[in-house]
Amino acid sequence: SFKDSWELVEDLRGLTGNIQKPVKQEGLMLKKRKWPMKGWHKRYFLLERGILTYAKTGNDVSKGRLRGRIDVGLSVMAVKKKSLCIDLDTEDSIYHLKAKTRDLFEQWVTELRHHRMFRQNEIAMELFPGETESHTDYIFFPLYYQRSFISKQPSALLKNNFRQNSQDMEKCCKDLSECESGLLELNLLLKNMEVLHRTFSAPAINLLQTEGSKKEKRGHKKWRSKNYSKENKSTQQVKHAVSLIHLTDLLFSSKILTLHLPDLPDGSRPLLQQVSSESRGSIPESLSEFFDAKEYLLSGSSSENEVSDDDSYISDVSDSMSVEYCRNENGITKAILSNGNDCALKRRDRLPSSRMNESVNLWSILRSNIGKDLSKVAMPVQLNEPLNTLQRLCEEVEYSHLLDTAVNTHDPHMRMVYIAAFAISAYACSFTRAGGKPFNPILGETYECLRPDKGFRFIAEQVSHHPPVSACHCESKNYTFWQDVRWKNKFWGKSMEIVPMGVTHLELPGFGDRYEWSKVTSCIHNILSGQRWIEHYGEMSIKHSTTMGDVSHCKVTFLKSRSGGLNANEVEGVVTDSHGRVIHSLFGKWSEALYLGKPPSVTCIWRANPMPEDHEQYYGFTQFAVELNELEEGLKPLLPLTDTRFRPDQRLLEEGDIAGAEEQKERIEVLQRERRRVLQENSMTHSPRFFKRAEDDSWVSNGTYWDLRKDPGFSKLEFPVLW
């Protein structure tokens, strides 16, 4: 609870003439970066006579090169002993400070309390000259509106007003404190619900239900989607994940965000305490995160946790199987198949083995290949991660809910915003993956990903070996997404540049929309030594067309990092109409989040999912990536033998057997060279099984995969021996 975490420091309760002048306090503390930036940075602070100033260094403070100034007497102060945090709310913004040690924290809190009381008493003595501490009915005025109030009122009016309304003012202080406490608790609740919302089992939200809703029996029923709006207000705080909308409506319609204060002597209307765009971060733990969570969850698709009103869709996506989700008595989510069998849908949350750290003399491999295409250079298996390039393509649809949201958005320019967010989100998984490369697919290798929980089915195939080309096709009832990609990898001594070629296509049949864009350049730094890191840079141009012609256009720029890591991972974009007029502006980081608008009035369109625990030890995989190579027993007979999950070298690496993986990798490469030699000797060419060339020379699905999977089944078909 709030009382167990944050402690609000009390204000001055009466005038006193014997407050000792506090001593000067100075030193280094951590200060949280301003929203929307994240993280902390060191600052040198100087506290003197109730005024806290700070700069980058102590030398800057002494020379007057200040970064900021805080009047602690006119600030609301809160401390959190457990995390050594100190918050100072100045109404205009909130300053989040943190001490490195317990002793330093206690020292700063003690001095801030002393300076704050001294400063408040100093202000009160100026307002009430001649008064003494005998006037115990005096209460220091509420800090949230005192600045504007002080600037407008003469001392005499202030004096009479505070005496007359001391009880009302005390009540207001109490109400404000309760409001702040309520906001913090609601903010924590929203964060917890956001985590739950991102999990597969949406019924787990019932842990947060009200007493009345807990008594409801859920039984075996299909999830159905509804079009919820802000006007749909419920008397229950939470019924399922979508009811977050109701909770936000409750916030905005309650006294939590709107508080009427007593009438003031100038005859104006009662002061209204509201959260404005400039002060969204004025509550500890950052109220802006509440707005971000709200917008993110509202923009989330129903496909992750709900099934369409069209009952036939599930069976369409799942071939011959219809899926019904239910919860048993133990609360475990099950999938009930049409054949009567049930199978647990709980997916694994980590790989079988962590990454094995074995040194590789990479320079001996790369020194003779500077400036060359590395796709033709054999690499030791230690440099790989236990995923395939085909599976990497599937990772690009992790945030497919953005496409579902776009389908439900009638404004074409706003649809483009969600499409742009989807295109940017494809890079998020790469942020923690600079340490390894995916396995190169074998010619004819395939991969399928069937996700009824996300509402899509995905297939990919390696359609060419020289040059290496990977093609994929993803479909749902709302959209069709496909692309064929080939990469050129070039080593430049300290870094490796990855230049993708090919066009990504997306169709939204409901609107007759078609979108096309190309990928940007990627670069992995510190290949030979130091901490490897990846950046993406270049311009992504998203074209939107219909049968009626061009409708809108989006240009997204992935900024190249400047010296010192400035503007790392940042993206900027604009959505324009057919005449080139800017309709929407976008900014953010491809590794974290994307915002619509310009600060401070922005809306979070997309935010990257939280990383699994200990992800650094497991190749930096996201939860979605962890699930991609999982091979359930019930799935084995349904897959073609060319599916990536049957590939032995990749499976052995996932299990931590590096020696076995290296041996299998060499054997598979020999088999591939032998097959290629046979084809050349017989003047034959390889024909992809599930993809074909289109008129524009791109690779598209031939539409046979899911039909063959259903009848006669891949177990009854012949496939080449790839491994």
What's the SSE blueprint?
Layout: H1 2-5, E1 7-8, E2 25-32, E3 40-48, E4 51-55, H2 58-62, E5 68-71, E6 76-80, E7 85-89, E8 94-98, H3 102-127, H4 146-152, H5 155-164, H6 166-198, H7 211-214, H8 244-253, E9 259-260, E10 272-273, H9 288-299, H10 312-317, E11 324-327, E12 333-336, E13 342-344, H11 362-366, E14 384-388, H12 389-395, H13 401-407, H14 412-425, E15 437-439, E16 446-451, E17 456-464, E18 469-475, E19 480-491, E20 496-501, E21 504-508, E22 513-517, E23 521-525, E24 533-546, E25 549-558, E26 570-577, E27 582-589, E28 593-598, E29 601-607, H15 623-628, H16 648-654, H17 658-681, E30 691-693, E31 699-701, H18 705-710
Parallel strand pairs: 14-15
Antiparallel strand pairs: 1-6, 2-3, 2-8, 3-4, 4-5, 6-7, 7-8, 9-10, 11-12, 12-13, 16-17, 17-18, 18-19, 19-20, 19-21, 20-23, 21-22, 22-24, 23-24, 24-25, 25-26, 26-27, 27-28, 28-29, 30-31
Helix pairs in contact: 6-9, 13-14, 16-17
Subcellular location: Cell membrane; Cell projection, Filopodium tip; Cytoplasm, Cytosol; Endoplasmic reticulum membrane
Family: Belongs to the OSBP family.
Protein name: Oxysterol-binding protein
